[in-house]
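User: Predict the full complex structure for these chains.
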Amino acid sequence: MKNNHWVIYFPAFALLTILLFSACDREIPIQADYTDYLYSSMDENGGNWVPVLLTSADEITIPVPEGVQSAGYQNELAEIRQLTQNLNGAQREAIGYWSNNPLLRWSEIALELVAKYNLIPGPNADGTYPLPNPADPSAIPNYPFAHPPYAVRALAYLSVAEFDGLISAWHYKYLYNRPAPGISDPQIIQAYIDNGLPSYPADGAVIAAAARDILTVMFPLEKDYLAEKAEEQMSSLKWAGVNVESDITAGAQIGEAIATIALARAKTDGMSKAQCPKTVSDSIKAAAVARFGWHWDNLEVPVRPVGLCPLFGQVKLWNVPTVEEVRPPLPPSPGSLEVEEDMDLLNYYADNMTTEWRATANFWQDGLGTYTPPGHWNRFAKEYTIKYKLNPIRTARLFAYLNMAMMDAGISCWDTKYYYHYPRPINLMPDYQTIAGTPNFPSYTSGHSVFSAAGAEILTYVFPEEGNLFRNWALEAAVSRVYGGIHWSFDAILGTEEGIACANYSLEVARVDGAD
Amino acid sequence: MKQLYLSIPLLCGMIMLPWLVQGQTPSDGIMMQKNQYCVVMLYEKSSFDQYWEGTLLRENATIETVHRHMVNGGLAIGFADWFNLLVNLPYVSTYSIQPNGGHFAGASGIQDLSIYLKAAIKDFEMESGTISILGTVGFSTPASDYLSDYRPYSLGFGANELSLRTILEYNNNKNWYLRGSLAYLFRGETKAERDYYYNNGSYYSFWMDVPNAWNYQAVAGAWLFDGSLQLEAQYTGIKSVSGDDIRPYNAAQPTNRVNNNTIGLFAHYHFPKPVGLGVVAYTSQTIAGRNSGKSFQIGGGLTYYFNL
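Assistant: Here is the predicted structure of the two-chain assembly.
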């Protein structure tokens, strides 16, 4: 026996294999990899852009700042000097993390919260379904259920508040022209690349306060987490040497004021009635049967008695005048040749599923537990903001129009869904099985198609060089639902047209807001 | 020559649990001799209608009862009395019984190719019997483009795995034995078809980290009827060292912390003729777990070994 040799060789061989194997593991990114950058433009006239909710940039007032020679300001500078010269590791990390475009980090935070709360309530033991309760958010299931309509609405209020807040901030920045701390005091070394942006009020503090206040209402259980994040971000402005205390106080004042205005609109926009009771839901279904002779049914076990947000179609729109004018035409009837052909198509995909189709279905699925399709397009907006080095106000404008357009598109889509109440493929094909989860709402039109087309139109407007890419992505997202087996092809095709039509109303507003 | 007659090194612990997918684990204490070969063909089925969502045992009519079938082909080669090579390639198919609330398609295809090197490290002869120390190094890798991020229907966890195992066995002269084995499973990353997922926080990548795990087994067994029938009672466990829990009423994913414990019975009968032919049968039940199906499993097949 050669056993004795193996006492040595075998473990040595094993160890070597482990070393080789562990070298293959990579770091998986949890956020965008970017640092502070030189803005591609400054938009000194940003204070003249047309805001969404404010009547004018100076509707929110802040104190006139003290002069740079004043004792008060000199004391503030002394604090910054002291802080910037004594940074610890955590403070340096915070400076690097928040960067000079912190809106992008708040976008990531918002998407993470969407993913965290995008969990559909499961049934009780008796077969009934509980609903999250905004009056008691920590009850099981937790409030909210951050489904796509909920998510796009939260993102819209967040982005609109940030945009209006920065218009106000830009107005005062160039009105008062307070120089950055490093200019008044050469001993203060600013951590970020100098863009020459006037420092009063702090644009970063506008973002921190507005994002904290909006997201706290949208995700009430995250109140402490959000407060901690906002406090760190505001402090990082001092650690980075870009703002003094009075800059931050004034910025936070604007952020809080615009958040209050945005939340007042949110409170009465109709969302609280969107998840209507069963009696209303049944009457919506009955109306569709009377009009069209068909209806959609939930096929879960146990049956979920009400679809997702039947009245989301009545939520207040941003830029589309009424849902009726963007409502797509009547879909083909079940039993018609066109629907028979679509059944053949769906069966063909299911029976001949390729890795490529499957990958497309999964890449765009953005289902339960994820940041949803609107979240996906916010992610793209972030990535292209970094690529094109947008300044904070132009970033805010992109996100505001993106999310207004997608929320309008979602409202229009939900109106269409419950107006036509069209059955899903599994409703019309009893033995049909899907690779994607069939959602709890009618088929026509496809939410993914509508959200994505609207998102792609806004991104194309802001980054025209990338337009083909964005529009192809939107088409891919649309067809992915057909590959997934949960939508008809006409859901995707008409949904894409609907999304474009909705986005055009937002683009009409954007084109004359003073930024072009 | 009992040792030759009974050398079927590939079977013990070949337990494929839904949602666990621990793969094949050659955890027995038997070595084949030089120039001895063994082929194995197994069929196995398992199912569960309850699973642990984190630590909560629940049912879910969306997936109803999930079934898993596996056909597994294996080959073992004795390069030397103290050094064997084992190879395995299963075909797996999964589905939910009808009706169910999810209407999801199942999956089927070739799962993972596994290769193990097994070595007898040291024997201690005693009056009552022998204590043997053995070791295995194993490597497995997905052998098709199956999607791991499709729980509970995915065929496997979709990542490379390196396993290191030590086996300690006491063989009593009166034809009974006790065995313990402990393995550490280094698992790599699996590629999903989405580049964002939530794992107690956002991850912006196609790659998902499949948690490493400990795998342990305790066995009591006996050779009966002049060594022609081998019977074993097994207790097997897997314990991930990291990972997240399945979220409420949400699908599982490859990043989950999968733990479970199963008890099982195993029997292997060797026909007197034709020499080398054997039949195997086994069953197991998951008795505890976390992010794992509560599975019942039954399997059986043929073994044939020969010398060249």
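Chain A has two domains: 46-267, 275-511.
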